[in-house]
Amino acid sequence: MAVIAHTAHKDKLAIHRLGLWLFIISDSFLFLGLLFSRFYLQGVRRPPEINQPLGLAISIVLILSSLAAYRGETAAAYGDIKRFRRNILLTLGLGALFLVGVGLEWSEAFRSFPPSTGYGTIFFTLTGFHAFHVVTGLLALTVALLPGQRARLQEGNSWGVEAVVKYWHFVDVAWVFIFPTLYLVS
Amino acid sequence: MRKAIAVVLSLGLVRGMLVGMAGAGAGMGVTVLLRAALGLSAWNPGPVVAIGTITGVLAYLAGLGAFSYWIRWALVAEPSKEGERHRYGWTRYLCVDINHKVIGIQYMATSILVIMVAGALALIFRIELSTPGRTIMGPGLYNRFMSLHGISMVAATLIGVSGLMNYLLPLMIGARDMAFPRLNALSYWLIPPAVVLLLTSQAAGGFDTGWTAYPPLSIKAPLGMQLMLTAFYLVGLSSILGGINFLTTIFKLRAPGMSFFRMPIFVWATLATALLQIVFTQFIGMVLIMLLLERLLGLGFFDPAREGNVLLFQHFFWFYSHPAVYIFVLPGLGVISEIVPVFSRKPLFGYKAVAISTLGIAVGGTMVWGHHMFAAGMEPYLRIPIMMTTLLVAVPTGVKIFSWLATMWMGKLKLDTPLLFAMTSIAVFLVGGLTGIPLAIVATDLDLTDTYWVVGHFHHTIFGGFVFPLMAAIYYWFPKVTGKFLNERLGKLHWGIMTVGFFTSYLPYFWLGLNGMRRRVYDYDPGLQPMHLVATVGGFMIGLGFLLLLSNLLVSAWRGARAPANPWHAQTLEWQVTSPPPEDNFPLPPQVVGSPYSYGVPGSVHALMPPGGAGEDGGKEAT
Question: Would you say residue B63 lies in a domain?
Fold first, then answer.
């Protein structure tokens, strides 16, 4: 049992981890509600114009970015700063590529099912909420590259990296549910 | 002069509001220019104000200094903690301060302020309702006041329970502070802009949808609606961040020996409340954004012409808003469980059952949202299951009521103001619960829905579960918070006036409801007037009670009798430290060795305090 000012590093880490997990659990209910809305309003209807290959491509990009993030996290835990930076930069690049893909997807969708239509409402909201999470994830990953976290890594404290990478995985897993819901179900 | 300006600018709130207004102006200006550049009509209030709200709130938080530590954390390995502590006196309450006791008081003060404003609105439209037809205002203004009263009271209640939990939780579990003190400060500071937005909504046309903001009405309502939605989004965000903090604190920062079944019931209530906050607030946040998207960007969630469905809103709204009433009342019920044993000098009857019933209410309360929609055309197959689950919630609630009664039974009752208020709470909450049964049963609900019966039931549950327990809590913990007693005679007068006033005001609602008075309606049949008049008189008595409380708070804080560390001879941990508590609560952690409520058990003790503190005997019962 811990008391805050005298908390050992290990206890502090446990506190931070629990807080992050509670945040992720809480946030996942947001996506649960969004997925529910899709089936409530649209059932399993899916417009034929939806670009499945592009959807699959950006899904793969996002999953690869999670792999890179994982490698970066492991490198950070072992104190290998060079490798950590390389992998997190790769994650950032793949995340940005994913956003470009979503942009392409949106420009196509605007023509075939704009946001003012039934399916467009669902499509743009789900992908929009997710893209917003991707943007926040990219910002958080960037913070992990700033001097503060680098200095902490040199002291053997990789919590900051662990936290942003866990969040990134969460954003990735959310997409794993959103992709079939929007692109495959019918 | 220059010095005075420097002092005022050193107050985070002032700085935040100034920078926030500049940020909002800049955001709106840039949006107008962008729109002009893109060839759109430059001034479209909806989107321009939406962008201005976002930039304004962010600028306000930055100007306040809510992000300062995190920015330093991003840039250096060991960020300095300057400006976070070492501020004493009243100015710390207007700055970002990370001490949970300061934040608790900030929440409480804000809550009481909002209650006063929303209560004044209620009195104004109660005057309007005292005669049929026009009395003092037209129907449009009546609708706006009624709506603003509802949503402001909901916000005030959320803020109030956060205040209670913030102040008491770390003290009760023997922690020095919350698990995430800076996040805690951020949770509080999201509230002032929400209050400002709620009030400015009236300058932007207000909103006339009632507090529920059902579409399509809320899609068509004026700009004020949008400000109300963003305000409530901020309150919700604060609530989620608070919930994460409470849960982490309970799980990780309990004092040595504080096992789950040695936690005070208020801590159990906080646990259950925080679980509801982190899970269900997400749904209201989402649905508020959906409303905003439909208003601003023309999406079609709730528009049947575009495959939308208004029931989607109602489902999600009640998915949150039903558990939200448990967020409102569970801490209050926890307060009653704290106060009753102390003033009965008996152990809390059935401690474990009460603890589990708290979680039971929270879990049961998640499956009952549909009883708000029996008459709304909801999927018919949901009706009977939801009726059953709703009635089942009576079981854990009954456990609590019988526990309080059995605790008081044959006790040495000491009829001080806190116990008097707790007893009123039990009576009022009981009436609230019993009048809920006809609303839970589909057949009777179809007749009673949207009548004053619902309004009467709701006000009984919230007064019984939040307002009266809040009064009890104020009289009980004021000596701990300030080191001074509240005036007992004034307190008893306040109690008497408010109790009588409450029943005078709200018992007529049931009669009115049964006689066909629809809720939220401006005009009514002249035959209903006598009861409306009685309700208005009762409303003013409640208002008078609040004024008595306010004067008591101010006078007693100024020249009240000095309170010792443990004036009520209570055993829970917060009473084992000085009044007011030291800056970091427990210099050394206490060792918890027994139940928090073994009153009247000779020689019993909840915790052993390390030597040197104020309450070295740990509230030990005389042998």
Answer: yes
